Amino acid sequence: METGRYGSYGYWMMDGPPGVGKEFAGGGFNAVARDYARIGLMMLRNGKAGERQVVPAAWVHESTVPSAREAADPAEPAFGYRYQWWPLLDSAAYMARGLQGQEIYVDPATDTVVVKLSYFPPGNKEAFTETVAFFQAVSRWQAE
What value does the CA radius of gyration of the chain take, rounded to a whole number of Å? Predict the structure, then answer.
């Protein structure tokens, strides 16, 4: 991945060869942890990156209010879903969830953004449940 003045250049995986392929819905965006953290921070700041409004604040609000509950095992965290964001029910926190372990966790109540780039096998609910518990613990942590 090339780097520029402000970090690495993210890219989209395509469904065909360079110059011919097209982006596909539901995935394929690649970036480094720092850049994913910038996305989380922009969401935390209601669509602002520094002083610039990158995404309308109304869209940030709408995209992080759950519209439907994901079918979940009672032992798993309960999520809603809207516009590629997964709001945790009964919480102000929400997540962007990548395939098998890439996550951006945002908790406006504690001014927290956490990025996790990892891998766990498909269908590994235990690893995902532990990841959410870790994010919540980090968000609650207070320095003494």
Answer: 16
40: Cα separation from own chain's centroid: 7
H/E element holding 96? strand 94-97
Walk along the chain (144 residues) and give the pLDDT tens digit of each residue.
Answer: 555 555 667 766 777 777 777 776 666 777 888 999 999 999 999 999 999 999 999 999 999 987 766 555 666 678 888 888 999 988 899 999 887 788 999 999 999 999 999 888 887 888 888 999 999 999 998 877
Residue 22 per-residue DSSP state: -
Can you list the domains of the chain with their CATH numbers?
1-30 (no CATH), 32-140 (3.40.710.10)
Structure tokens at 113: 């953004």
Strand 86-87 with 103-107, pairing:
unpaired
